[in-house]
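Q: My labmate handed me this sequence with no annotations at all. I'd like to see what the chain might look like in three dimensions before we decide whether it's worth expressing. Could you predict it?
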Amino acid sequence: MEHPISIWPVLALALIHFYGMRLRFLGGVPRSIWLSGAGGVSVAYVFLHLFPELNQGQEHVEKVVPALDFLNHHVYLMALLGLAVFYGLERSVVASRKVKPKNNKDDQPTTGIFWVHIASFALYNALIGYILFQREEGPARELLLFAIAMALHFIVNDYGLQDHHQHVYRRMGRWVLVVALLVGWITGFLVQVPDSVVVLVMAFVGGGVILNVLKEELPEERESRYWAFMLGTVAYAVLLLAI
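A: Here is what I predict for the chain of 243 residues:
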């Protein structure tokens, strides 16, 4: 049996969690132009490629979940849910850091918040790993475009998680995320699920991508590079529209 080609982008994404901490040029203030550009690429992919694809997949969902007058766009509700869930997680982490004792120099969230945060991103990674395998059924170009967008998105996420959790993330968190990514991909390899489920999973991930990018770009203290974000957005948008 041939090896699925999607294993290569999965391994590349796993390496980002392994070696992302070594990209020291991404740190500091003002925010690295590479992080802002990577965020722009991810957002462009979601709006110009993933969401239109979800719109086409709505019919698969409606066959399983009868459309009610107020629930006739199930995929977009899932995207909204993904955005809302990760916004809530981010708020809980920020709030936890604010209530840490003053003599705690690490300025890290509580252990409980750390594990909730990592567990949520583990699920997120598992869903992305699953979607990567599902891309096997389409053109290799679709797999490559998704893999590039997610690789850059993983760099943004990895930097944000290290900023929040520091050495705890480097010691344990990143390993959990790598395992989750591989588990998601293996699940796709072993289990065939209905198209409606795949569409809803993609919608949830799309909402999560938007929030996880913007939460890193918007805080004033980050001094983000708007021009770099726009450059990444426009460049990948042109690429998506041209092919």
